[in-house]
Design brief:
The mean pLDDT is 89. The protein has 203 residues and is α+β, with helices and mostly antiparallel strands. The chain is built from two helices and ten strands, in the order αββββββββββα. It has a single domain, classed as 3-Layer(bab) Sandwich (minor pseudopilin epsh fold), CATH 3.55.40. The longest helix has 52 residues. The radius of gyration is 26 Å and the shape is elongated.
Length: 203
């Protein structure tokens, strides 16, 4: 049997389309900020973990080699002959046999690390060259360049904000505080009260 005329086409009418777009907009409006927060949290955690990993490496190598090992800021971390400098945002871990905060001939560079993710800033309690030096015992020691780092504060554009609650109902900070204890072991603090109350001064 032949049918004449146009068949009815199934699809959205204008009201259904508007409702669909409204719902999609609401989902995106709630989802994008959460995703942005998720990315920022991961970047902050990665930066803190990278620093702590390098501190552990420096301490472990000092004990293993029975030699002085230094971790320091460096802007030449990627060079063939890298060295420490106060303006560096990357860092080095190297054998520093004479403890002079400089990579001299015959002193091996154990690790060289690039700067952390853009937008993350550091504040430290060291007045001069940012460094942390370990004796062969694994304990921190002071070099001739002045006191070494004992506190590192990491912040980003979120400043002093809470990113949620931990299992005990405490606010978790956007930033992080890394404290190096008397034995040289680093600890990461992430609660807002700790980060804002640290010796460097908070975000």
């Amino acid at each position: 049997m032949n049918h004449t005329g146009s068949a009815r086409q199934a699809g959205f009418n204008i009201l259904e389309l508007m409702i669909t777009l409204l719902i999609a907009g609401m989902v995106l409006g709630f989802g994008i900020p959460s995703f942005t927060q998720f990315i920022a949290n991961n970047r902050m955690a990665a930066a803190a973990n990278d620093l702590v990993t390098s501190i552990h490496l420096a301490r472990t190598e000092a004990v293993k080699r029975r030699s002085t090992v230094t971790l320091c800021a460096s802007s030449t971390w990627a060079d063939a002959d890298p060295d420490c400098d106060a303006g560096g945002t990357g860092w080095l871990v190297f054998i520093d046999a004479n403890g002079d905060l400089s990579v001299d001939g015959g002193e091996d560079v154990i690790a060289a690390h690039p700067p952390v993710a853009e937008g993350i800033t550091f504040a430290i309690d060291a007045a001069a060259l940012p460094y942390l030096q370990f004796a062969g015992s694994g304990f921190p020691q002071t070099a001739a360049g002045g006191p070494g780092i004992r506190n590192i504060q990491l912040c980003d554009a979120r400043g002093d904000t809470s990113t949620g609650k931990d299992a005990d109902g405490n606010d978790v900070a956007a930033g992080r505080w890394i404290a190096i204890g008397a034995t040289g072991r680093p600890q990461i603090y992430r609660l807002q009260a700790d980060v804002q109350g640290n010796p460097v001064g908070g975000c």
